[in-house]
Amino acid sequence: MCASFFFNFCYVFLLVIFSPYLIFSAIFRGKYREGSSEKFWGHVPKCASLSGTSSRRVWIHAVSVGEVNLAASILREFERRHPDFEFVISSTSRTGLELARKKFAGKTVFYAPLDLSWAVKRAFSRLQPDFLVLVELEIWPNLLLEAERRGVPVFVMNGRLGEKSFRNYRRVRPIFARLMRTLAFVTAQDEAGAERFRLLGVPEDRVVNVGSIKYDGVQSDRGNEKTRKLAALWDIRDPDRIFLAGSTQDPEEAMALEVFRRLKPTHPELRLILVPRHAERFGEVGKMLEKEGADFQRRSELPEVSEVSNESRNEKPRKDILLVDTIGELGGWWGTSFAGFVGGSMGSRGGQNMLEPAAFGTAVSFGPNTWNFRDIVNALLASSAAVVVHDTDEMTDFVRKTLEDADFAQTLGRNAAALVASQQGALKKTLDFFDAGIEARF
């Protein structure tokens, strides 16, 4: 009780300090308004009690888009093994929730409560979960303490604990050691991460390095239905060479546009796809393209294939720049790419997941700031499966080489796809540990 009071006091104090910004963002940007009842008061969907000894309810929490995509892979294997289980899914961000609603249609999907004791308690009471699964990791004290109080085991799957986060948590280790001891088990992405969990207080026998589930959850077949549909939607033809800049942040879209402009005159087969990381930036990137005089299309304005005849499609002039202003399609678009740049890697974000283009055999590049995916980056670079670019000139040189040196591009892509295939299997190991845990408990 004292711990919950302390954390509540800290949260409310921070809310008061940042309230002018939060109110401004809610009024003028529409942020933070949706789901306020779920977030602040725990009014998540109410679930009926389950009957039967084999029936269980699993609450899966995925913070944002990347974790939601990962949760989809976990859930598929969960349902195959436990068809009698019920699954409810929460997310923290608006884009994460929108994607979750698409991926988990027919299931209970909701905003996760903020870590306020009254919201967390009400959420647990309404959901009545038997297990709580945290995808990758979010350490919320009241959530973990309430789960412990109710006897709900908490499983961290595909646990990721970077060096920066580890240093921050370690400064208050006495607090976090208490919280870490509440975890039933942690499957870590790598041994370095597993050791960090142990050093923060997770008991030795509850942490295991199984590798990254992200290797398992990626599509590698360019002929998959989603990619074929998107390729037809933008009328991508065999001679086209697609350069895709995905999960981008400012100024990476402008850099990719400059690369396209430099190379297009001598490489008419080149086309550019831009996929910003956050939905809030779709408008901003569109304005940048307009200001630069780029002749582009928005994904949201493309007519469906069934609405356009082949004859009229062939007659209509094609545009060579596409702004993907929709959620949840990046994986499919990567399957159309010949060369790619994975964003969030030129600034302070620490990179984004580069396994999707790698699995498709795309010639992959990214910037120098990729500490969030250090182990994956090291594996790609050690396998000669990716290239680091530091500025627009180097990005231009990379794309030019993929266009002019077929062996270079094919070798990069082949090495990347082979690496992904060799690392798969973490999902099975993760669910094996989960099954062993519930067998021991029930």
Written account of the structure:
The chain has helices at 2-28, 36-41, 65-81, 94-103, 117-127, 141-150, 163-170, 173-180, 191-200, 225-233, 252-263, 282-291, 310-315, 330-334, 355-360, 374-382, 392-404, 406-422, 426-441, and strands at residues 57-61, 86-91, 108-111, 131-135, 154-159, 183-188, 207-209, 241-248, 270-276, 297-298, 321-323, 339-342, 363-366, 386-388. The chain has 442 residues and is α/β, with parallel strands linked by helices. The protein folds into two domains: 38-46 and 54-216 and 425-441, Rossmann fold (3-Layer(aba) Sandwich); 225-422, Glycogen Phosphorylase B (Rossmann fold). A seven-stranded parallel beta sheet has the order 3-2-1-4-5-6-7, with helices on both faces. Strands 10-11-9-8-12-13-14 form a seven-stranded parallel beta sheet, with helices on both faces. Helix 16 links the parallel strand 13 and strand 14. Helix 17 crosses helix 18 (406-422). The longest helix is centred in the first third of the chain and has 27 residues, at 2-28. It is globular and about 65 Å long. It starts with a helix and ends with a helix. The relative contact order is 0.10. The mean pLDDT is 90.
